[in-house]
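User: For my dataset I need records formatted as: sequence, then structure tokens, nothing else. Please produce one.
Assistant:
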Amino acid sequence: MNKLCSIFITIPRSQYIGVHNIKTNATKLYLQGMGHGIENMAYDWVTGNLYMSDSTMKWILVSSSDFKYYNYVYKTFPDLPYGVTLHAKER
């Protein structure tokens, strides 16, 4: 993935998380069934991990930028996670 011309996206209707290349206008879709409740994303440039808040599953999900590895890191039940941010010094 060329990080300088790509953006992470969610497609709630088809429930995908993906990467859209701005230069080629091509989109690669990953994690089918996981993109329906994503409210917010934060990308860690140092580790290459993508953090997502999911209000449907009520968790904070982390994924490698190639989506080969993913897992939830925090379960928020009964509250809904509507945002996620990274602390620049204490990741």
